[in-house]
Amino acid sequence: MKIFRKLKVLIYILPLMIILQGCTISYRFNGSAINYDIYRSIDITEFPIRAALVYPPLQQTFENKLLDYVTRQTKLQEIDGPADIEMSGEITGYSLSPQAVGSDAYATETRLTISVRVKYVDNKNPTNNLDQTFTAYRQFSSSLMLTDVQDDLCNQISEELVNLIFNATLGNW
Description:
This protein is of the alpha/beta class. It has helices at about 1-20, 55-75, 145-170, and strands at about 40-45, 75-80, 85-100, 105-120, 130-140. It has a 5-stranded mixed sheet with strand order 2-1-3-4-5, with helices on one face. Strand 3 and strand 4 form a beta hairpin. The chain is elongated, with a radius of gyration of 25 Å.
């Protein structure tokens, strides 16, 4: 009887194994589908601040977040000089604007907006090249001093910008 049970299980499992052997399941949690046989390297250059209003730590914060995100989400080797993919740009906007006005005619909320222009060059497939400006913002209470919230806001905005940039470039395969 045991032989018949084993044979019965084998009869059900064998066709299933044959069917599944021809299938491959692929999961990409980051949205990136880079062909690493073609793309092996990336060069991410500095993003200097070209905005009218300058907050010097922003450049380093943004560059670090971009480089960290790309190295965590891809297998691309970051190099200096000619690479399969090159990413450069500049921080073009850093501005404050009042958003909500209270009954006393003073702003109750202020918006910090940061814009980054990105030049993405795909040396293997130029149709993927991109030259685009990305913008993100955060609002904060006007009762707070900018100096008290600036670092935190710049971190949050930089993270959002990096996500937007990654999705439009390396995540758009």
